[in-house]
């Protein structure tokens, strides 16, 4: 089959790779109809993530049609249209059973890698380094989906592919951020980053009853989009002192919940050998601002995917301001069915985020558009069915 | 890829716990009060002890490691299932193929066997990696 593979720092290419096969009774094979780029792919693309290898298939946001199921799959049949959660969880371990599938013990093939980095094995995900326990990704004709009853979700007929695709990752991530942040009626929520994830966080906060949602981004075009498609207000990116502006807009208190949906500061530069060897740290200006701006006793949610260490973390604020700091890599088990219902009821629309649709063959161009945020690109969607241009 | 400090931490934690009052359930250990010699690996399995060691029999793939490996279970706190521990008996060697696979890192074999026993008990299967093109006869 054809698949979009990472081929070295800053490069991707479509290659012929073997079709996936059922390897477990809980597996399904999905024929991909649509997949999307995500901010979380950018550090991978740039070669900043340890363990990524030439030939790893990228893409963790995808949907398609079930073409084969193992004997232990009970909730899906061949022919079902499904959207697949980006993280792999088993549904049976204590973490999964207690409602935290993003902490699953079993969804990783190389647990030693994350034990080394973080002290515990974390779940694998599609389109992530296979040497660190990830699974071949969704920018391909077919994908093997382990624990398909847990991670694949049937899509209601009323919901289009362009909409349902966002249930793979960006929408549940936003929803989870609002939940972890404890958004409640009357809450004031600030969101850093007006990419798909930030905008869907803002939307989730409104749906959960937030009184005000304020979104920030250096890009005016994304702020314009956020104003048009969410209830959020925006802050002029040229403002010299964002925390002061937020303080002023919140009666001097600071927002109750501050969500970082930015990720590593992206300078478009592949990681140098020296940085790789010394483990030189990323600097997260948005996390910094969120910690600084948050009201005393408030909650900071870090959604951004950092590849390891960061510098200049304002640890003092945690104690001095009594902050709660939360984070998670969403797994849809808790949210996706409800999100799909909201999509079916038209409460949650995502089509505006699907700014570009390209044949899989143009994956390199799609990633370049998305990385450089050219031409208003918020998400590039790939379809293996679209004929290559020319 | 091995992490020395993690192993050391695990072993220290095990020593403390095995010496402590939480050790309540040991069908597989003929001498429950014998002082442990260290080197224990442990996982928490989200099933009751009698399903983790049914009839006192050790689960696959721990069983395959034979009597060179000592196994113990006790309930995990707060309804989290069973803590399943294993170690290579001091002075013992892994049997045949396992010894070959283990090379100079037998603890890792024990750790992997524990994880697989956990997955089997929790999900009914051991999660398999994709086969390489070579294993599928597709290389070239
Ligand atoms: N935790 C999860 O489950 C989860 C799921 C999906 C994505 N993510 C992560 O969320 C982050 C955002 O994802 P995305 O797909 O929306 O990415 P994106 O790259 O499309 O959007 C990031 C946005 O942040 C803006 N930005 C950059 N610096 C900023 C700053 N200092 N202040 C405010 N905004 C700033 C950028 O202009 C951009 O619009 C990524 O790090 C991604 O890995 C997490
Ligand atoms: Zn994503
Ligand atoms: Zn699990």
What does this structure look like?
The complex is a heterodimer of chains A (390) and B (140). Chain A contains 14 helices and 15 strands. The relative contact order of chain A is 0.16. Chain A has 2 domains: 221 residues, Quinone Oxidoreductase, Chain A, domain 1 (Alpha-Beta Complex), CATH 3.90.180.10; 155 residues, NAD(P)-binding Rossmann-like Domain (Rossmann fold, 3-Layer(aba) Sandwich). In chain A, the strands form 3 sheets. In chain A, strands 3, 4, 5, 6, 7, 14 and 15 form a 7-stranded mixed beta sheet that branches. Chain A has a 6-stranded parallel beta sheet with strand order 10-9-8-11-12-13, with helices on both faces. Chain A has a two-stranded antiparallel ribbon with strand order 1-2. In chain A, strand 9, helix 8 and strand 10 form a beta-alpha-beta unit. Chain A is of the alpha/beta class. The model of chain A has no long low-confidence stretch (mean pLDDT 94). Chain B has 140 residues and is of the alpha+beta class. Chain B has one domain. Helix content of chain B is 32%, strand content 14%. Chain B has a 3-stranded antiparallel beta sheet with strand order 1-3-2. The longest helix of chain B has 18 residues. Chain B is globular. In chain B, 32% of the residues are buried. At the A-B interface, helix 3 of A face helix 4 of B. The site of nicotinamide-adenine-dinucleotide has 29 residues of chain A, from helix 6, helix 7 and helix 11.
